[in-house]
Amino acid sequence: MKSLTTLSAFIEVAGTGSFARAAQQLGLSTSATSKAVARLEDELGVKLLHRTTRNVSLTPEGERFLEGSRHLLGEFAVLKDEVASSLDEPKGLLRVSVPVALGRLRVVSIASGFQQRFPNVLIDLSLNDRAVDLAGNRIDISIRAGKLEDSATLVARHLFDDRLVTVATPDYWSQAGRPTHPDDLIGHRCINFRNQRTGRLMPWTFTIDGNVQRREVEEYLTLDDGQSVGESALASCGISQMPTFMAERSLKAGELEEVLIDFCPPPIPYHALYLDRRLVSPRIRKFIDELVQQFEK
Question: What are residue 61's phi and psi, to 5 degrees?
Answer without folding.
Answer: -65, -35
